[in-house]
Amino acid sequence: MVELSRERIVVFSTHIIEDISSSCNQVAVMSDGHLRYWGEPRNMMSIANGKVWQVEVNPGEVEAMTQQFVVIYHMKQGDKVRLRCLSSEKPDHRAIEVKAVLEDSYLWLLKKQDHEQHQ
């Protein structure tokens, strides 16, 4: 695909966001007919810097967290649940900032769009 892309534009659609970072020099994120991002994948990752958090909560707190924040994933860890979420501010006093990956930035772009539509 790399050789093919030297001579023409290649449209590559995938649900596995991390495939993009190793396969593409440029990436475009479109949603509802609008271009949300155009540029290099490594620059796109910086969009979510400082907005990705991990926090361990009690199982009874999970629903409230998913209603307040964009929860990327949750995993049971013993008697706690580990959440990875997006927030422009620290979502909980127990939360720690974690390194953003391309998928985090993609979800942040979509979250920003959803927020703008509901204002």
UniProtKB/TrEMBL annotation:
Domain of life: Bacteria
Keyword Transport found: yes
Keywords: Transport
InterPro entries reported for this sequence: P-loop_NTPase
Family that this chain belongs to: Belongs to the ABC transporter superfamily.
PANTHER family, per the entry: ABC TRANSPORTER, ATP-BINDING PROTEIN
Protein name in the entry: ABC transporter ATP-binding protein
